[in-house]
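Changelog entry: the Cytochrome C oxidase assembly protein record was regenerated in this release. Current contents:
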Amino acid sequence: MTRKDERKAANRRTGLMLAALACLFFVFVILKYKVFGQ
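Regenerated structure tokens:
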């Protein structure tokens, strides 16, 4: 495995982590608005 492949895999892993965090934050905000909206 070359260094380019390692870097690509690391970038993909970081991207997935960021996407997961963004989704969690989005869901959290929606739930918050639903609770405070009632």
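The chain has a mean pLDDT of 92.
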